[in-house]
Amino acid sequence: MSAGIPLFILSALASVILVLWSRGGAGDKSSRIKIAVFTLAILVASWVALLSLGVFHPVGLWGMSVGFIISIASLFVPVVYNKVRSNENT
Fold it and tell me: pTM (2 decimals)?
């Protein structure tokens, strides 16, 4: 239970950031939407594994771990993507 609240907060924040990032901005949105959908699908799959099997099952534990990693990494996805795209244009 103690890991559920921070994971939920991180997941909600990551989802909001990815949705806002994928919808806003100039330029081609298809690659941003693909990245956001892929990341959110992994996040949803980790939540499904965690909630269906529980944290004490090995798959549920991996689901929680992947959920934390994806949630934290998705906070940096817009920054890394914009940096790669700006280097690609120069």
Answer: 0.82
